[in-house]
Design a protein that fits this description.
This protein is of the alpha+beta class and 584 residues long. It folds into three domains: 7-171, GAF domain (Beta-Lactamase, 2-Layer Sandwich), CATH 3.30.450.40; 201-340, GAF domain (Beta-Lactamase, 2-Layer Sandwich); 350-583, Phosphatase 2c, domain 1. Helix content is 39%, strand content 23%. The protein has helices at 14-32, 38-53, 111-117, 148-199, 204-219, 248-252, 275-280, 312-340, 344-358, 407-424, 431-446, 522-525, 537-546, 552-566, and strands spanning 58-63, 70-77, 87-89, 98-99, 121-127, 130-137, 224-230, 233-240, 261-262, 285-291, 294-301, 369-376, 384-391, 395-403, 452-460, 465-471, 477-479, 485-487, 491-492, 507-510, 516-520, 576-583. The strands form four sheets. It has a six-stranded antiparallel sheet with strand order 3-2-1-6-5-4, covered by helices on one side. A hairpin with a 6-residue loop joins strand 1 (58-63) and strand 2 (70-77). The longest helix has 52 residues, at 148-199. Mean pLDDT is 85; it is low at 1-13.
């Protein structure tokens, strides 16, 4: 006698139909999650549900994340084609399936608009209690009402659809971000390569020619004008334009620009209006070439050969390219000036004396604190910096910094940093706000081609508290008298790379008697032995612990001696700067 099929799994039984529904849901989920193409997902959702409920019309409306109540039609099947892109405001989306003609107009003002479109059934889509859209359908065949089981099944389809749509949108956003990132990386690589080429040239004519080739090749224009500052005036260094070359009055009207600008967007405050003249020449973009906040040249460009408009990314690239070129031109000018002054060595010696004068020759005597510092340049002039500055209210600023690069450029930027700090300290603003100002001023002055790692702190000798901000500098050691060690790492990004977007963070710590604070630059921790081995922060920490009972000066001497012994036989590769503060 053969076994009989259990009744619960026979065709027609509730269990059998439930199994069929689960299988269909699984197949539906598999299909729409197999693609991230939005149009495919919308189409499959509509066709599947329209087939299930026997409707001939369907649409997908998605919520605009920026508004949280504006929905727009992304796809419509069977409805008039002009509905696509239409919007509708739904302040509060109901969670359950609904019939449009059963909604109360007093509570759902949008129901009338849905009805005018011919929508009869609405199926909301939610993720984690948040609406992402709604599916709308026309009349069912024969006007039949949906049964409870069908509604449950449709809600399952809506949940699966919501997840697939959100996944598609998320991946689409990531792909868009990745494309922008890829473009930025490509631009940075291009700028890096061009920077090396520019940096290898010292002939101004060759630099201008390379700039023109870069504009033609990287941007794709056939009209251009490159102007360079010559004393108080601007002169044309290279051109390909329609008509005559511009007069000095025209160029002088553009020297106050701070950022790349479309000709049509130029602001004319008074006097001469350059827009009609530039438009007649076929020029549409003006890019200032800046150095230390001063415009040293102008790049004026016509439309792209591709006829594509100049986007924000294009303007940023052109600004960076112009700055790279103007820096190279300035470097060429400085090199020529140096040759005319007979020997570079004389200039470096003078610069070294000036730099020595910028660093404090005698540290102030602060009651309750023992302070010592040292600075040893790897070249005649260097880019390391330290300072102790009296602040309002009987407080003191201690600072240490490391400018990128070495030699005269780094020393000049260090001097710029010191002047900025000493000008801002008397303002008596919070340290975090002062750091933002220092960073923004450095970005304006350097054009983003130099940066500084920087740490500073406000010491209150009366209360024995220290408030600090660390701008990407080596984390100082704070060794407490009880043997615990802290690293002072709160702050933000290094100075001079870009304008402040995220506020700097400051932190306050209490100092106790016997505490030892050690500030240093990477010339200490990254000092190289002749075997090309770094001194390392582990050795430095061990030295700090070993000499915690000594005076501040003795600690600096001990660390310097240890570094010298470690690097014996190898050339000093970087500036060595330290500051030690001990509470007495």
């Amino acid at each position: 006698m053969s076994p009989q099929t259990p009744r619960s799994t026979r065709p027609g039984s509730d269990s059998y139909e439930s199994h069929f529904d689960f299988a269909a849901l699984f197949e539906f989920s598999t299909v729409i999650n197999s693609s991230i193409e939005p149009q495919f997902i919308y189409s499959h959702i509509l066709l599947t549900i329209m087939g299930k409920i026997l409707a001939t019309r369907g649409m997908v409306l998605l919520l605009n994340p920026a508004s949280r109540k504006e929905y727009s039609v992304e796809m419509a099947k069977g409805f008039p084609g002009d509905l696509k892109g239409k919007g509708i405001t739904i302040a509060r989306m109901p969670r359950s399936l609904m019939y449009v003609n059963e909604l109360r107009p007093s509570r759902t003002s949008w129901a009338g608009q849905m009805s005018s479109w011919g929508v009869k059934i609405l199926l909301p889509m939610f993720i984690a209690e948040q609406p992402i859209g709604v599916l709308g359908f026309g009349e069912r065949a024969a006007g039949k009402k949906l049964q409870a089981r069908e509604k449950t099944y449709l809600r399952s389809l809506a949940n699966i659809s919501a997840t697939a749509i959100e996944k598609s949108r998320t991946i689409g956003e990531l792909q868009h971000v990745n494309r922008k990132l890829d473009r930025k990386i490509q631009e940075l690589n291009t700028l890096f390569d061009l920077g090396k080429e520019f940096g290898a040239l010292l002939d101004p004519e060759k630099i201008v020619r390379l700039l023109v080739f870069s504009l033609l090749g990287q941007v794709g224009v056939n009209r251009y004008l490159v102007c360079l500052r010559d004393g108080p005036d601007m002169r044309v260094a290279a051109s390909r334009i329609d008509g005559n070359l511009p007069q000095s009055e025209l160029l002088s009207s553009l020297v106050k620009l701070k950022a790349p600008t479309h000709v049509s967007d130029l602001i004319v405050r008074q006097g001469f209006d350059p827009r009609p003249v530039l438009a007649e020449m076929g020029l549409s973009i003006v890019v200032p070439m800046q150095l230390q906040g001063e415009i040293k040249g102008l790049i004026l460009l016509g439309d792209k050969l591709s006829r594509d408009p100049f986007g924000q990314g294009d303007l940023e690239f052109l600004s960076l390219l112009g700055n790279v070129a103007i820096i190279s031109l300035e470097n060429a000018r400085l090199f020529k000036d140096a040759l005319e002054k007979q020997r570079m060595e004389d200039e470096l010696m003078i610069a070294r004396e000036i730099q020595k004068g910028l660093l404090p020759s005698v540290l102030p005597v602060i009651p309750g604190l023992d302070i010592a510092a040292t600075n040893i340049s790897s070249k005649q002039v260097g880019g390391d910096y330290y300072d102790v500055i009296a602040a309002p209210g009987g407080k003191y600023i201690i600072a240490i910094g490391d400018v990128s690069g070495k030699g005269t450029p780094a020393a000049l930027l260090m001097a710029n940093l010191q002047a900025t700090i000493r000008a801002l300290v008397p303002l008596n603003l919070p340290l975090s706000e002062l750091t933002e100002r220092v960073n923004d001023l450095m970005c304006q002055n350097t054009g983003g081609n130099k940066f500084v790692t920087f740490f500073w702190a406000l010491l209150d000798p009366q209360k024995m508290i220290l408030t600090y901000v660390n701008a990407g500098h080596n984390y100082p050691y704070l060794l407490h008298a009880d043997g615990t060690m802290a690293r002072l790492d709160k702050g933000g990004m290094i100075l001079g790379v870009m304008k402040t977007l995220v506020p700097y963070e400051q932190e306050t710590v209490a100092l106790r008697q016997g505490d030892l604070l050690v500030l240093f630059t990477d010339g200490v921790s990254e000092a190289m032995s002749k075997e090309v081995e770094e001194f390392g922060e582990e050795r430095l920490e061990a030295l700090v612990r070993r000499h915690e009972g000594m005076s501040a000066h003795a600690v600096t001497v001990a660390i310097h001696h240890a570094v010298q012994e470690f690097t014996k036989g190898a050339a000093q590769s970087d500036d060595i700067t330290m500051m030690v503060v001990k509470s007495c």
